[in-house]
Amino acid sequence: MSPTFEELTVGQEIGTRSIDVTRQDLVKYAGASGDFNPIHWNEAFATSVELPGVIAHGMFTMGAAVQLVSDWAGDPAAVVDYQTRFTKPVLVADTTGTDEAGAIIEVTGVVGALDADARTVRVDLTVVAAGLKVLMKSQAVVKVS
What we know:
23% of the residues lie in helices and 36% in strands. It contains 3 helices and 5 strands; from the N terminus they run E-H-H-H-E-E-E-E.
């Protein structure tokens, strides 16, 4: 059920989510997005350009994080704005052949501001992987009834 404006308060948590990420997820995302940069799937290449290993696409991380908001809103079209700053890469270990994630992204959403005239809510996201904030100033604006 979609939230209503009247039931929301600043500081209210909208939810949390843990997102398991594998190298296979990154390959699938590369195919969907057309971003086949080998830093997102090839360990040898990633380390040759001085990265600590294969990293997730920034836009993959951004999209995975905002899913919490669109699920909470009940309609992806209710998210009318979404912005963030990329601060740290999400390192994805090779777990091919196992059931384990190569990385886990933790997302928490909190109501940051309410606009009664526009009937919108700003949701502030905290996005962490391996104990590091990987997105900063991650904010989604949602139109609510």
